[in-house]
Fold:
Amino acid sequence: MSTYTAAKDSKTDNPVTTELRDSAPLNLKRLCLLRSVVLTGQCLALAYAVEVLGWSLPVGKLCAILLIMGFVTLATWWRADRAWPVTDGEFLCQLLVDVLALTLVLYESGGAGNPFVSFFLVPICIAATTLPWRFTWLVAAGSLAAYSALLFYYQPLAALEPHHNSTGLNLHVIGMWFNFAVSAALITYFVAQMATAVRRRDQALADAREQRLQDEQLLAIATLAAGTAHELGTPLSTMRILTDELRDDPALPEPLRKDVATLDSQLTLCKQILNRLTTTAQDFSAGRTETIAAHKFFALLKEHWQLLRPSTHDASFQIDLPDHAQMLMDTTLEQAMINLLNNAADASPDFVHLRAYIDDGELVVAIEDAGQGIPAAQAERLGTPFYTTKGRGLGLGLFVSNAAAHRYGGKLVWHNREPRGSRVELRLPCDGVFVND
Structure:
């Protein structure tokens, strides 16, 4: 069975908006975690150098620097949980603070001769991954200036001099190896995660632009539909008058009288649709919502659809929902399902089956037909405006259904059935459709 998805998930709290809102604070938290790892390593290295190796280090100054950075890390972690946004300028300042702290530590422990001097590359990598290029250049310039200053201004540490006499491997060489291993691990883990967050943010921006384009298309269609509905009022009233006169004419043959009655019922239905459209628009503008029993909603849906498609008599509706379930009475949702039912009836007038059930926290309205199925080449374009595979119509039915699914944070999914036919699923989150008692 092949599957085609026509819409991405979008919850009531739009994931695109959530992604854009959460990526910067998340990167700031990752920076805090990286600082914590570095500070822990520096504390352990200081204790080892003083207690085990017996090096003469300015312990008081180094402890003060590490303690201050510990407070900065805690304050930054607290700030990352606040509601105000994390800007690029703030993230730049955070990285420059790291450069300054590293510079002070290296100044007290051998300057540029300390093998950990190449750790300046870590904030540069983070800036290159998360910040605009001009801010990256500022971090690079600050790191280069600090490295250059440490070549001339530092507190010497004889044990780390490259030519310090010792047996076996020189401590400077060992330190360079250890620094490479630590830097590689930190860059691989933290910077890769930050880069992933940036890529997700870029994808979210692309999705937001695509959603905005779809909303603009839907608004244009809605504006056109509103104008058309207004213009249809007069000709519908005229046709109702004519059908009433024909029906009251005693000379009208009986076969034609039945046709006139059918025509009159269809005109009445058109008038009801226009009235419902106006009422729905007014309720939506005023923020009014109504609820209805789920079983009654689908019963009215079936009745309404069969008035529109009187030639389809074999459609079956299976409603596997709790008897007490209440859902929002939304004309757009009803219209979305009617569009899907019409497509199924066009594909196979002799077999249309609708089943409504709950699956993994979602209301699933599955509609099956016994038509030719969906060619893979056409599946990608389903749900786009003005595209139809039937050779007639405007190509707006699936687009409107797709827009309704997005509105409720759901999606449309198509399957090809075996041996033939197709199945479309309108999947909507239950917390957005059903109303708690």
